[in-house]
Design goal:
By secondary structure, the protein is of the alpha+beta class. It folds into 2 domains: 226 residues, 2-Layer Sandwich (Cytochrome Bc1 Complex, Chain A, domain 1); 199 residues, Cytochrome Bc1 Complex, Chain A, domain 1 (2-Layer Sandwich). The two termini are 25 Å apart.
Length: 469
């Protein structure tokens, strides 16, 4: 995972209101209609969506709930609230004692138990034996409906310190952490909702009050802003009755409106010089803004990123690591997001190699792609990789990237939970000409943020363009 990607999210897949529209349906490649995931979707009177999908391979059931709120929805000066609630939701509610939520599930034999936050959603999930589905639903409903009854100043202060420590470990004392935060904020200048870090700033975390946190919860954690997915070995009629029992009685207000923000566009290269205090080797990072998740151009970027920086056969790895031995590591990633995605290339230099040398070679490879494109063999390799990754995740009913997570993700982004075949079909449609055009039109030198993170003892590199420090 690239460091830019690690900065941006704790899990995959984001969204904005515009993405809650299903793209135009296209005919599926023969045989791919079998990729459809059987499901039933309905909405409770209080506005909560429910997705049910029966899978009887194993006697287990996944409970996966998405709240359609993330760092994208936070107000300036109130960053980190969505992630803070990822912690607060495990601290006890009106009918569940403090700090026993996880313990109760583990005693019930739960697996794949976690919560994650990204820019556009927060989710909580667990997989339990089929006979203990009711326990999982009760726990989820109690913290949805009765968390604020148990919220105290002491609990808030405890979790504020936990999150601040996470920030210290993940940003301030992590190799290249502060440098990558600078680069991300240059990509999305304030007040864009993506400008901050999902984990929030120290200043905002310190300033959060109990009243602030309660107001955030009442707005964004209402049933009307949540989708519950249940996937696995369960009785449909009995499960519907349990959902009605534990969630249907919860009051809810109107679904909150998410921010509508104009896309960011860079017309001049931004060069960041960072005096790296933690890592001992120089890092070069280049990043461009690209099409949102599932929109035209997103799959093309995925294909190119794979050809450039995934595996030993990729172009950048062969050139920088194997042939010229300039880099310790190199990768290219299309980080697909709801409002705008980010295409990034990162390389860590070998001892004695400057970031200037890395940039020269990376630019040469990009120039080759702009001139000649990539090969059909590279496209097929990338398609195979995406097919394998998607289908492998669907073998599990619960956990990150699982069947329940997949249904939730597509539901948020396109309003159609069973969208696997259509998603994979995007990659079948990418051509070498499209990749070449993408590299020419999108990956322009004047549209990128370039980061030189150089350890203090190394000589600073030179460069051109608009500089930020």
């Amino acid at each position: 995972m690239s460091r830019l990607k690690a900065l941006a999210a704790a899990a995959l897949l984001l969204g904005t209101p515009a993405l809650a529209q299903q793209p135009e349906a296209k005919p599926l490649e023969p045989g791919r209609e079998n990729l459809a995931i059987p499901y039933e979707k309905y909405t409770l009177p209080n506005g909560m969506e429910v997705i049910l999908s029966v899978d009887r391979k194993l006697p287990v059931v996944a409970v996966n709930i998405w709240y359609h709120v993330g760092a994208y929805d936070e107000q300036p000066g109130r960053t980190g609230f969505a992630h803070l609630f990822e912690h607060m939701m495990f601290q006890g509610s009106k009918h569940v004692p403090d700090d026993v939520h996880i313990g109760l599930l583990e005693q019930a034999g739960a697996s794949d138990l976690n919560g994650t936050t990204s820019f556009d959603r927060t989710n909580y999930y667990e997989t339990v034996p089929s006979n203990l589905l009711e326990t999982a639903l009760w726990l989820e409903s109690d913290r949805m409906g009765f968390l604020l009854d148990a919220l105290t100043q002491k609990k808030l202060e405890t979790q504020q310190e936990v999150v601040k420590n996470e920030r210290r470990q993940g940003v301030e004392t992590a190799p290249y952490g502060e440098a990558q935060e600078k680069a991300w904020q240059a990509l999305f200048p304030a007040p864009h909702p993506y400008s901050g870090n999902v984990i929030g700033s120290m200043k905002d975390l310190n300033a959060a009050t109990v009243d602030d946190v309660k107001a955030f919860f009442r707005t964004w954690y209402a049933p009307a802003n949540a989708t519950l997915a249940i996937v696995g070995d369960f009785d449909v009629a009995k499960t519907k009755a349990l959902v009605e029992k534990y969630f249907g009685t919860l009051p809810s207000g109107p679904k909150p409106q998410r921010p509508v923000v104009a896309p960011v566009k860079h017309t001049k290269e931004v060069v960041i010089r960072h005096d790296e205090k933690v890592a001992t080797l120089p890092l070069l990072s280049m990043a461009w803004l690209t099409a949102p998740y599932l929109k035209p151009g997103d799959a093309t970027a995925d294909i190119l990123a794979t050809a450039l920086g995934t595996g030993r056969a990729s172009r950048l790895y062969r050139r920088l690591v194997l042939d010229k031995q300039l880099a310790q590591s190199v990768e290219a990633v299309q980080q697909s997001q709801g409002a705008q995605s980010v295409f990034s290339i990162e390389a860590v230099a070998r001892p004695g190699v400057t970031t200037d040398a890395l940039q020269k070679e990376i630019d040469a490879v990009l120039d080759e792609v702009r001139k000649d494109g990539i090969t059909q063999e590279e496209i097929v390799r990338a398609r195979t990789r995406f097919d394998t990754r998607h289908l492998a995740g669907l073998q599990a009913v619960g956990g990150s990237g699982s069947k329940s997570d997949t249904l939730q993700s597509y539901n948020q982004f396109v309003g159609e939970p069973s969208y696997v075949a259509q998603d994979l079909a995007r990659y079948q449609e990418v051509t070498a000409a499209q990749v070449k055009q993408f590299a020419t039109d999108v990956l322009r030198p004047d549209a990128r943020v370039t980061l030189h993170a150089v350890p203090s003892k190394a000589a600073p590199s030179s460069g051109s363009g608009k500089e930020a420090r």
